[in-house]
């Protein structure tokens, strides 16, 4: 829809989404195609505090 019209405001109103969401989805689609639009985990890649806790636990 966005590629056809080029009107981000119109697409956002019709789909009930924000412009930042539309930009994020367009970027993901350009990079990874349909697979880029699947839900992605928001879980952090690392947890530095947990590593520190493990080290402290090992020292005690």
TrEMBL record:
| SUPFAM superfamilies (UniProt xref) | Homeodomain-like (SSF46689)
Question: Which region ranges are annotated with the description Disordered?
Answer: 33-60
What single Pfam family name could you report for this chain, choosing any that match? HTH_29
Q: Which InterPro entries match?
A: Homeodomain-like_sf, WH-like_DNA-bd_sf
> Per its UniProt entry, which superkingdom is the organism in?
Bacteria
**Name used for this protein in its record:** Helix-turn-helix domain-containing protein
Tell me the Gene3D superfamilies matching this sequence: Winged helix-like DNA-binding domain superfamily/Winged helix DNA-binding domain
